[in-house]
Amino acid sequence: MPRFEEIKLAGQLPSPKGVALAIMNLCGRDDTTIDDIARLVQTDPALSGRLLRLANTSGGGHRPIAAVNEALLRIGMKAVGQLAMGFSLVDQFKEGPCKAFDYRSFWSHSLLMALAARELGRLTRVAAPEDLFACGLMANIGSLALATAFPVEYSALLESGSHDPLAAERETFGIDRRECTLAMLEDFGIPKALAEPVFYHLAPDESQFSDASRPSRLTWLFHTAHHLADLGVAAEATRSQLAGSLIRLGGRFEIDADGTATMFDRIVAEWDQWARLLEIPATSLPSFERMSETPPVAAEPDGAASSVRVLMVTACPTSVTPISTLLQSAFGYRTYLAGDGDEGLSMAVAMLPHVVVVDADTPSASAHDFCRRLRATDWGKSVYLIVMTATVDERNFVAAFESGADTCLCKSLGDARLRAAMRAAHRYLGLLDAWQTDRVQLKQIASELAVSNRKLEQVARTDLLTGLPNRRGGMEALARAWSASNRSGEALCVMMLDIDWFKRINDRYGHAFGDRVLEQVGAGLRSEARSSDTLCRIGGEEFLVVCSGSDLRSTMTAAERLRRAIATLGLVAGEGEQVELSISVGIAQKEAGTSSTDVLLGNADKALYAAKHAGRNRICVMAHGKLHHGGAPVSGEDLTRGSGAARPKK
Ligand SMILES: Nc1nc2c(ncn2[C@@H]2O[C@H](COP(=O)(O)OP(=O)(O)OP(=O)(O)O)[C@@H](O)[C@H]2O)c(=O)[nH]1
Question: GO molecular function: any one (predicted)?
Fold first, then answer.
């Protein structure tokens, strides 16, 4: 019997309980409806809240929802089962008997990974974001499983600090955390198409998935999400390195450095809120920009401790001992050793050195190849690259510079000359540091400017009194609705609304009260308007409603609802005086002969004028070139509603 089945049969694995288990079972049945699941979800207020939050932060500019069954529709039935299970595991396993296993940190990391996987899913559309959230939450569940099934042994194994923990797990338990995760995900009903990429996410290169295939993209997505979570929980000293590699991973998904920074900051903000919801810890982090800054270079080199990292690539460490000793003692640089070009490259990616010293003698072809490959990486472009050879003859000298070296030094150079040559490197590093600081500041300024520009654009389209789109915003909304209607052939109507006798209100109660009336009318209209309608204040006491996908009959019904809402608004002026309000409405629909938005608005305006002329507090329609008065909006015949004009009670 496979090892996983044995452990499972022993009943030692983490598994969902109660409502979550029932939901999972229900989700697995063919005849289950959303309402069945919604009823069950509603019996667990915490789960309801979490699913609503997930649905309301799913992106895509959806309107907010408050009903559980709508949330389930948005999330999808399958994902609901998996999420219920994930949340149930979080709730049950915040503590446990495995002493060396930090349960809370485990969930904190898993949650951050889940949010990162969801965000990457949104950006890449490689899979449904909510499915990715569930997979991210459980992508390392195998560790929890081992901690739960073998608390004492696993604790000892963790404390031993094995350099190959997976091999140690296989040796001790007959299964490692990755295999355990895969088996559990499949057991929980997560499809192979997602479970396998999760399995490979810690070592994507081990998978046999062909490049650019969906499984490969998913594997890299989980790998990137895991890396992002590592950065979120990393110690301060390693953040800059991890941030650098996250930027490189972002490049796989065509996300540039700025995009990575914005994405990270957004995910971390969500992490904080979700962590509170799940009662697990989240680290308070500085912005990604700050975390990715490289440590500054010391201004005074000699003898001072410095954060400059030097990578020395040589098969013969003794041949670079003089320069290594000088760099450490005189300049305070930290040196690291790589045995060949391949090791040098992977170390360079991980540690992001400031200076690289390459021994070109052993063997020279691979040394020059290493220099070229290093220069091809983002970080390698700005590294100070020193090539050292036993003899600096013309051939070695030219080859060194052709492969990208900044300088070529002889290994037997005396201490004084070496020191002088290194001053050039130090000066370069100082300039690079100053340039990077300027760059960070410029980026900061650019992003602040972009934010202010966006805010300004928003303000330019918004009426400050009511918070509704203004004329400019309204005309843009109408132009969009017009184009959409041209493309889809869907109906389009507009309503022009005007408050009746508004001048009298101003004259009698003052402009300040008039402003309050405008605010209240705006709010009243907004709460009564359909979510698909765009409501704007396009002039003093004039409003426009763009009704996309709405035919004349339903627009008239909606207009009547708005008219009634304002007629019953019941505003009270300063001395407790009741002020009656009413609006007149002109409706026009886009017809075969309506050649432009201007013509459509002109028709609605004519209808509004007619409504005013006919006595106000009513709805008139311009259709097929004719004005229609009289006839109830609901029946489609009597278009006129109400009587008399709204005005301050005399
Ligand atoms: N308080 C306030 N008044 C405004 C604002 N914008 C326009 N007005 C006033 O709105 C009034 C509009 O008056 P009119 O165009 O004569 O229309 P009315 O009195 O509503 O009469 P009818 O539209 O014919 O029913 C004017 O007195 C404007 O000064 C505003 O932002 N605040």
Answer: diguanylate cyclase activity
CB atoms within 10 A of CB 336: 17
* CB 8 less than 6 A from any atom of ligand 1: no
- 39 and 158 in a single domain? The answer is yes
Supply the CATH number for residue 416's domain: 3.40.50.2300
Q: Which atom of ligand 1 is nearest to the CA of 499?
A: 20
The DSSP 8-state label assigned to residue 618 in this structure reads S
221 touches 250 (CB < 8 A): no
Same domain for 323 and 223: no
- Given a contact cutoff of 8 angstroms between Cβ atoms, the answer to whether 227 and 208 are in contact is no
Q: What is the CATH number of the domain that holds 576?
A: 3.30.70.270
pLDDT digits (tens, 9 = 90+) for 374-420: 999 888 899 999 999 988 889 889 999 999 999 999 888 887 888 88
Could you identify the atom of ligand 1 that is nearest to the CA of residue 500?
25
Q: Which of 400, 429, 414, 428 has the alpha carbon at shortest distance from 323?
A: 414
Which residue among 504, 506, 521 is best mutated to probe the pocket of ligand 1, counting the most ligand atoms within 8 A of its Cβ? 506
- Judge whether 290 lies within some domain: no
Task: Please report whether residue 66 resides in a domain.
Answer: yes
The predicted-structure confidence for 271-306, as pLDDT tens digits, reads as follows: 998 888 888 888 889 999 888 764 443 434 444 446
141 found inside a domain:
yes
Q: Whose CA is nearest to atom 29 of ligand 1?
A: 503
SS3 content of the chain, % helix, strand, coil (to 5): 60, 10, 30
- d(CA 512, ligand 1 centre) in Å: 13
Mutate to test the pocket of ligand 1, among 497, 499, 502 (most ligand atoms within 8 A of CB): 502
Q: What is the dihedral of CA 252, 256, 261, 263, to 10 degrees?
A: -60
- 417 C-beta closer than 6 A to ligand 1: no
**Distance (Å, whole) CA 58 – CA 361:** 57
**Residue nearest ligand 1's atom 25 by CA:** 500
Q: Based on the domain organization, do 54 and 105 belong to the same domain?
A: yes
- The pTM score is 0.47
Does 499 sit in the ligand 1 pocket, CB within 6 Å? yes
ipTM reported for the complex, 2 dp: 0.95
CA–centroid distance, 589 to ligand 1, in Å, is 26
> Do 486 and 400 fall into the same domain?
no
Q: Which domain holds residue 41?
A: 3-278
